[in-house]
Amino acid sequence: MRVLRRFPRDFWVLLGGDGVAHLGYGVFAPYVALYLTGPIGASNTATGLVLAAWGLVGLLTAPFGGLLSDRLGRRPLILGGLAGSAFCAFAFFLASSVWVLLALVPLWGLCFSMMRPAMRAYVVDVVDPELRVEAFGIDRLVANASFALGPPLGALVITLASLRDTFLVTGVTELCFLAIALAWLPESRPAAAATEEPPRLTEALHDRRLLVLALGTALAWFLFAVYDEVFGVFLHQERGLAISTWGLLFTINPVLVVLTQYPVARWASGRSPRLVLSFGALLSGLAVFLLLPFAGIAIVVVSIVLLTAGEILEAPVSSALAGELAPEHLRGSYQAVLDCGYGAASMPAVALGLFLVGRGDFGWLLGAAPLVALAAVACFSALPGKGTDVQPVVEAV
pLDDT tens digits for 69-115? Predict the structure, then answer.
């Protein structure tokens, strides 16, 4: 109860709705690549292109989602993104051609990329600065607690119905979040002064520290995206792991996040952002590399645990740091630039990873993981050492 009182009501409403939506994401996320390569009949390369389209659209449109949230408000972007995501989930359920899905994925990615920066800017708006790392940690805890229920629920749906029906469940959860937001989520954007110029995206792009944070985040997230979207296909096709076994192993990540994210976030809030982020990147690099020389379920479990530890350290700290760097009128834009890092990572990770799996050359990517992690550390080393070093200043390029 003490934790509940430390944060405002609007924060908990947002998290409640997001938790419902993440249940839906968890139902289909572990199985989407297997759905495309299985019932739809797409090749590994075509599947990689379909999934990479999500990252490409996010990379191209997330900045405008953040800018619009700074100009129009957080609420319109959140409501519009939820309505569009629900439509895309139901369309996925009805589609039967890879070409239709190739058209739907960019639209779904557009809805998602327009909504997520607004949601993170909402957290920055309503939560006190000293509590933001904790707030983003709680956000991830709630989302992952819901997401953890998704894979076993998805397995049940697949057993009783089909892979296709997982998207029907996802569409329903998106509509539930939309209803919650319509009823109880007010606008949070700070009121602009009458003489203030409209926010411009170029202002955010002039902050070198934000660009370095986004680049480091992209490199670190590349490693997690490989796990999230490619490991299932790799382990099934090259290591002989059963699909049902991967669904159970996939649940380790959200369960660990639920158990450890909040205490780790509280611990990280008093530490140097660059050190926390660097340590997280190194853990991720080691986790992916382990699968090159070793095999077996035990090693896969260790890899997932290390990747989860890296994610737990990186995600809340990077979002909170972007919020600290941002001037008040650019909070959505700063979160959107950070989102570009996630999009820039997901696109090549999925496309390249599935291409290499198809060729039987995935070991090259596993071997390169430590180098990717070290490149991320090089970026993070240029960030502020302590929270008190962070000032929302826009620097000239």
Answer: 999 999 999 999 999 999 999 998 988 887 888 888 889 988 988 89
Note whether 218 and 379 are within 8 A (CB).
no
Residue 160 lies in a domain: yes
Rounded Cα distance, 148 and 356, in Å: 29
Closest C-alpha to 123, from 159, 86, 69: 69
Q: What is the dihedral of CA 274, 250, 96, 108, to 10 degrees?
A: -30
> pLDDT at position 391, please?
54
The token duo for 269 is 């809030």
Q: For the chain, what is the domain count?
A: 1
Give CA–CA dist 259/276, Å, rounded: 19
d(CA 296, CA 56): 34
In angstroms, the CA 255 to CA 7 distance is 23
- Domain limits at 98? 9-186+200-388
Q: What is the DSSP string of 54-94?
A: HHHHHHHHHHHHHHHHHHH-HHHHHHHHHHHHHHHHHHHHH
Mention every residue, 6+ apart, whose C-beta is less than 8 A from residue 164: 35, 39, 93
Provide the pLDDT confidence category of residue 34 given band limits of 50, 70 and 90: confident
pTM confidence score: 0.83
